[in-house]
Amino acid sequence: MDFELSPEELETRNWAKAFAERVIAPHAEAHTKQKLNPALLKEISAEGFMTLLVPESLGGLGLTPVSFALVMQELARVCGSVAVSVAVTNMIADVLVREGTPEQQKKYLSLLTSQKSLTASFCLTENQAGSDASALRTTATKKGNEYEISGEKIYVTNGAWSEFFLVMARTSDAPGSKGVSAFLVDRNAKGLMIGGEEEKMGLEGSSTIRIALDHVKVPESARVQTEGEGFKIAMRALDGGRISVASQALGIARASLAAGVRYAKEREAFGKPIAEFQAIQWKIADGATALAAAEALILRAAYLKGQKKEFTREASMAKVFATESAMKVCDDMIQIHGGYGYIKEYPVERYFRDVRVTTLYEGTSEIQRMVIARDILKTGVR
């Protein structure tokens, strides 16, 4: 088995790293106090980051899932807020490529490639439907050749900058996930109301809003796939999204580990750098080892996705291990900094706040363990 990245993958990673350090890094600290600047998002989009997985024939960069994971790691290493905005937009673009009609692709992918829409948004979660997403209550009632959608969605990432939303709504009384369908809804649709920004612990630069839909009319052509396929569409999207979230967590944790190493070499106690103390060395060694293992899981899942093989279990394994390992690393790097780690002057406190949500969104750690266990019990150990 070849564990080396290909020349193309290395080139892609270096491209993303150089862009992130040159264009995004100067704004990273400001994103703890304000939302991402639309001008910055436009520059990021113009470089192709919002359509990384879209084939070149449809106007994207046509990256493989492995290259995409590498890009996400480099963006997150510099700024988690940018990384999550890019990740969610690419998740929607990937849905359009995989599930959309040629007409849907032409309309909505062109909005992203032309920067008329700086981002895209995924609307699944509701007040009473989080981990149990099949319990959603938003409805889409068929009336002639239209649907009327009513309900409310929460935790809508990118809401401030998206010109369209992928909305999951119930189209029948079938129990659980069987009655859920997916719709593309334009921002300017009558009856769509954009809520205010949520105040978050971390990723302050990213946009997180609520939306309300009051008898929003969309044409039948706005439905993605057939009625009742919405939940499957959402789950397929989340499988890929979990690789992305794992990559985000890895990138943030690598930045934190690097900061911890630098500080340990510079800080002196009892007459020598604290890097010479075993207690500090073990935190660094354990952190680096955990992140190396996380990277292997991420690349394995991404490789399987690229080969169009089953990767649901591997994506969940990558997400739960990478995010929980990243949490531990970021916590340990604060400990290495001592009291300074709690001060905003040092970036490790931002890394900790940014990485915390990765164990929550796109499926909590508990959900990942359920997915993994169910798959093993169904198909066996491999």
What does this structure look like?
By secondary structure, the chain is of the alpha+beta class. It folds into 3 domains: 7-119, Butyryl-Coa Dehydrogenase, subunit A, domain 1 (Orthogonal Bundle), CATH 1.10.540.10; 121-227, Beta Barrel (Butyryl-CoA Dehydrogenase, subunit A, domain 2); 231-379, Butyryl-CoA Dehydrogenase, subunit A, domain 3, CATH 1.20.140. Helix content is 49%, strand content 16%. It has 10 helices and 10 strands. The strands form 3 sheets. The protein has a 4-stranded mixed β-sheet with strand order 1-4-5-8. Strands 2-3-7-6 form a 4-stranded antiparallel β-sheet, with helices on one face. It starts with 6 loop residues before the first helix and ends with a helix. The relative contact order is 0.11. The model has no long low-confidence stretch (mean pLDDT 97).
Mean of all residue-level pLDDT scores:
97
Order of helices and strands: HHHHHEEEEEEEEHEEHHHH
State the share of residues found in helices, binned by percent. Answer: 40-55%
CA-based shape = globular
- The order of strands across the largest sheet is 1-4-5-8
| Rg over CA atoms | 21 Å
* The named CATH superfamily of the largest domain: Butyryl-CoA Dehydrogenase, subunit A, domain 3
Please provide the count of β strands: 10
CATH class of the largest domain: Mainly Alpha
Total discrete domains? 3
* Alpha carbon gap, first and last residue: 17 Å
Q: Which structural class should the secondary elements be placed in?
A: alpha+beta
CATH-assigned fold name of the largest domain: Butyryl-CoA Dehydrogenase, subunit A, domain 3
Poorly predicted runs are: none
CATH arch. level architecture of the largest domain: Up-down Bundle
